[in-house]
Amino acid sequence: xxxxxxxxxxxxxxxxxxxxxxxxxxxxxxxxxxxxxxxxxxxxxxxxxxxxxxxxxxxxxxxxxxxxxxxxxxxxxxxxxxxxxxxxxxxxxxxxxxxxxxxxxxxxxxxxxxxxxxxxxxxxxxxxxxxxxxxxxxxxxxxxxxxxxxxxxxxxxxxxxxxxxxxxxxxxxxxxxxxxxxxxxxxxxxxxxxxxxxxxxxxxxxxxxxxxxxxxxxxxxxxxxxxxxxxxxxxxxxxxxxxxxxxxxxxxxxxxxxxxxxxxxxxxxxxxxxxxxxxxxxxxxxxxxxxxxxxxxxxxxxxxxxxxxxxxxxxxxxxxxxxxxxxxxxxxxxxxxxxxxxxxxxxxxxxxxxxxxxxxxxxxxxxxxxxxxxxxxxxxxxxxxxxxxxxxxxxxxxxxxxxxxxxxxxxxxxxxxxxxxxxxxxxxxxxxxxxxxxxxxxxxxxxxxxxxxxxxxxxxxxxxxxxxxxxxxxxxxxxxxxxxxxxxxxxxxxxxxxxxxxxxxxxxxxxxxxxxxxxxxxxxxxxxxxxxxxxxxxxxxxxxxxxxxxxxxxx
Length: 555
Description:
This protein is of the alpha+beta class. The chain has 3 domains: about 100-245, no CATH class; about 260-440, no CATH class; about 490-555. Helices cover about 60% and strands about 10% of the residues. Strands 1, 2, 3, 4 and 6 form a 5-stranded antiparallel sheet that branches. A 4-stranded mixed sheet has the order 5-10-9-7. α14 (about 320-335) packs antiparallel against α15 (about 340-350), α15 (about 340-350) crosses α16 and α17 (about 380-395) packs antiparallel against α18 (about 400-420).
């Protein structure tokens, strides 16, 4: 049910869509196709249509006008290239999360409320003019009492209420789409909205972002390539985060990098290596590595250049299962072993168990083989992964959100690397990391590592083992162990076998009664004797009746 506030918001959304000529697209959807004639009754369509920009561009501009939640939705959808047309996905990737700043005095009040002290007691200097402003929060420069330069990130006031309102409306529209549209049921927009809800709730909690930054900093503490700024935990809450301020050259400033003497080949390969190290060594990666979040510290005497990251609101992690999926699929693809790629999907359960490996193999070969029409260093990991996702989706694979985030980030890293150094061989840079991961987890080395990691837990449980063995043997002896299957197919087969057995038993009993009747009839022809106080004829008809009754029960 749509509440009054959501209805008012829906009308505002409709006005923006009409302004950008998107009402035609809406009426062309399956949901509104039965009432498409209304489109021609709208007054602004009576005298012809104005000339509009391409539809993807209009959609992007409309989302930016609709506000932060819709911008985030577009950014999320830009990762779902398995669902969207290519032109729309490309345009959504350009969405900028920049909005007008809120007053610096309001930011000061939020900081004082959250930290419980006046700003003058917390900082030597606090600049009310923001350095940057986004939909969820904005950033101010500050200096601690000990002279360290920091940034202060403050959550935008009232944003939570706006998010809840727009998400409520999105959930309603997504449910209607799944209810009334076949395409909606197939694309499952409710899952997309739920994913957006989770992302926004996570970004609202700056304690979570601070924890992400700390974890990434710890993972690369010994690295000479990547630097992650430190969090000032005593000054960090859910709505305020204070972090070390870094100074560097934006990676998008190619001229500035060239003046600083940065080796573009080193920088491009460093970006790829950093990303794949996060994925395969740490299973924890920065999922928003676009150029705006990457800086380079220029080399100084005794200090080599380093890549520096900011904005840790969107992070993701991979299970060992996901890592194996990626590593083995990438290596099999590199060897053009499409059968192995298909087998990996079936073995791991990514596609339904009944999927024919040969059909899946042919489909993968069809979409991936054209990629090898170019030099190996020109082949895109991101494009290959997208093609793989699109193919697997047709075979029933449910793509996990973390893999979609990885694919989006991979596209960003590849694009940036090739922009800086077009000759970069991403395969050559990433392959050693993947092969090392496979060697450490498969074969003798993987067995030794797994044993070493699990040995303390095994030793801890070892004293319980004799009692568990004795209990198991006693249960086996007493017949108290039963094998249970949760498979619906097995249970159905078991019911059918049981019912068939019952029918057979009843049929045998019924036949026995009728056979007895025949015997009694034969005996009755020779003697009018009594049996159990009743004539033989009575037993004859009684046996016939019982036989027919039992047969009917058997049917």
